[in-house]
Each structure stands twice: as structure tokens, then as C-alpha cells.
Specification:
This protein is of the alpha/beta class. It is 16% helix and 29% strand.
Length: 344
């Protein structure tokens, strides 16, 4: 592709020769025929050493990279990079139609363009929207609904009655609609017994949602567990019963959301965050990795730690924690001077 064509598609300004590039790749792997990108100043040494003759760069670094290369200058390099990558991406060819090795029960509605691979099971009264693809081993429960242009990769499980919007992607092993973890404790003559609480609800997943491999979204006890449009969930995440997630949230791998937690729109959550049942996180809040969230986090807050506190306080606390051994020694010396015991 010509750089001028790419520039118009990604909203960038071309500076330099209008080269033709064959692919997009990282600075260290690029050849003279490749387009690469520089996100920040820390990558300048790699950029100067790279063989790439064309780079996507932010405006503030353009002058420092004027060394005969062609530049695509974009205010948001990562966004421009994503758009450029989409131009080069080609989906691998796949068969179309319905495999005779799939099991499709009575009353199933398959809209035009649906692809069903071998060993897929689709339960009664389920509906699959136009151009959706179900890869081998997918299980679609009775009455489940799948929108248009969805991708369900191998061994995805949809329990009965769950609903997916259009353009939803579920990666391999994702499970949507299993029972939530709900039990009542009964103390009887023979000791403690856990009584299972039936879950009558469902799961509603909005359009443009992507859920990573082996992640789980539990059905509501009553009503629905809801995931808003455009939300992206990484691998190995757990979304509990009756959780509600607003639009365009980011939830990184190994996060766990307890039942009835509420996340506002555009929340960003780092890896291994735990959210207590019933906790509330406001719009645009950012939760650092490994944090523990209880109670309410206000909109646009940045928090970290267990329990999560404002990140500016957490950073000071981490610095202080590293100094605790020296502080203990100083305290012991002071106690000796005061005639007290040296032990805390």
C-alpha cells in the first residue's frame, strides 16, 4: 500500500516520500519494505536502529526522526497503528455453510451467511444472526440468541437463554450463563450443609463485546448479568451473577467481579483486580493491577492497593513500606535511649 493511502485511512499527515509498504511490524523486526511505529520518546533509540523506512510517529517526535525516512504523523499513535493494522489484516479463509456433522435441534433459526463447523450443538429454539461463525465444539443452549457477525471460537459454551448482541467475539473456552456461586448455609443435626440457590436469570451481552479465552460470565439469580456495548474482557476473568458493566470497559486477565458489582462506562481495570460483591465503580475510574475494590469508587478516580485507595496515597505508602525495617531499628534505638525495652 502507498503511504498516502494509509494516511487517509488512519487520519495521519504524510511527511516525506510516498513509499509503498508491504506490511506493518515492530521496530526490531521491520525491513525496508515495512511500516513501523514509535509510541513515545523511550523508543527513539530502537527507531533510529530500525531498518523501517516508514514510521507512524506523534507530532512531538517527528523532527527527531527526520533522517530520510517517511513519516505518518498522528496525534494518537496507538489508534493510528490499530487502524493501519486493520488495513493489512486478512482473515484466514474458512468454509461456509452448515456442517453435516453439527447437531441442530428443532426450531433453530439460522439467518443467511451463518457458518457452523463440525461438532457444534445448537439447542431448540436458538437463533443465530447473519454471518455469524460457530467453530468446532461450540455449545449453544436452548433458546439462546446470537446476533449478527458474531464469532464463537472452539468450545465456547452458551447456556440456555443467554443473549449476545451483534459483532460479539467469544474466544476459546469462554462460558456464558453458568450458575452464579450462590449457596445458603443450613446448620442441622448433622452439621453444616450448603444449599444451592437456583439461578433463574440470564446474561445479556451488548454489541461489539469481546471476551477472552476461558473467561466466565455467570447468569443472574434473578434478572440479568449485563455487559455493555464495546466492553473488552481479557482471558481468565470471572464475572459474577447480576454484575452490570457499562459500555467500553476494559477488564484485564484474571480479574474477578463478585455478584451484583456495578461498573460504570469506560472503567479500566488492570490484571488480577478483585471486586467485592455489591461494590460500585464510577465512570472512567482506573483500577491498578492486583487491587481489591470494596464499597464505592467515585467516577474518574485512580486507585490501587488492598483495599483500593487513591493512587497518589498508595504510592507514598509503598515507599514508606520499603523503609519500615529501618524505621523499626530507629524505634528500637529510641526505646533504649528512653530506658524501655528494645522489642516492639
Amino acid at each position: 500500500m502507498k503511504l498516502s493511502f494509509i494516511a487517509t485511512k488512519i487520519g495521519a499527515e504524510l511527511k516525506g516520500e510516498d513509499l509503498e509498504v508491504s506490511s506493518l511490524t515492530s521496530l526490531d523486526q521491520a525491513t525496508e519494505e515495512d511500516l513501523s511505529f514509535v509510541e513515545s520518546r523511550q523508543y527513539l533509540p530502537q527507531a533510529r536502529a530500525s531498518k523501517a523506512r516508514a514510521l507512524i510517529v506523534p507530532p512531538e517526535l517527528a523532527q527527531e526522526l527526520e533522517d530520510g525516512r517517511s513519516l505518518l504523523i498522528a496525534p494518537q499513535v496507538r489508534v493510528a497503528w490499530a487502524k493501519a493494522a486493520a488495513l493489512f489484516w486478512k482473515e484466514p479463509p474458512r468454509p461456509s455453510g452448515i456442517s453435516p456433522l453439527a447437531v441442530i435441534e428443532e426450531g433453530v433459526q439460522l439467518e443467511p451467511g451463518v457458518t457452523v463447523y463440525p461438532f457444534v450443538y445448537i439447542g431448540r429454539q436458538a437463533r443465530i444472526g447473519k454471518n455469524s461463525v460457530l467453530y468446532p465444539g461450540v455449545f449453544v443452549g436452548e433458546g439462546a440468541q446470537i446476533g449478527q457477525n458474531c464469532r464463537l471460537y472452539p468450545y465456547v459454551v452458551l447456556y440456555p437463554g443467554v443473549r449476545l448482541g451483534d459483532h460479539v467475539t467469544l474466544h476459546a473456552g469462554a462460558v456464558v450463563g453458568a450458575d452464579g456461586f450462590g449457596y445458603a448455609q443450613e446448620i442441622g443435626p448433622q452439621g453444616l450443609k450448603h444449599l444451592k440457590i437456583p439461578h433463574f436469570g440470564t446474561v445479556e451481552i451488548g454489541p461489539e463485546v469481546e471476551i477472552g479465552a476461558n473467561s466466565c460470565v455467570d447468569r443472574g439469580t434473578f434478572g440479568a448479568t449485563k455487559i455493555g456495548p464495546g466492553t473488552k474482557i481479557d482471558n481468565l476473568a470471572q464475572i459474577g451473577h447480576n454484575v452490570e458493566i457499562g459500555e467500553a470497559a476494559i477488564i484485564v486477565a484474571q480479574c474477578g467481579l463478585g455478584g451484583h458489582a456495578r461498573l460504570g462506562p469506560w472503567v479500566m481495570m488492570g490484571g488480577q483486580v478483585g471486586v467485592a460483591p455489591g461494590a460500585e465503580i464510577g465512570a472512567r475510574a482506573q483500577i491498578a493491577a492486583k487491587s481489591g475494590v470494596t464499597g464505592k469508587i467515585p467516577p474518574e478516580a485512580e486507585v490501587a492497593g488492598i483495599p483500593a485507595i487513591p493512587i497518589r496515597i498508595w504510592r507514598k505508602a509503598v515507599v514508606a513500606f520499603a523503609k519500615l525495617p529501618d524505621m523499626v531499628k530507629d524505634w528500637q534505638k529510641l526505646k533504649k535511649l528512653w530506658g524501655g525495652k528494645s522489642e516492639l
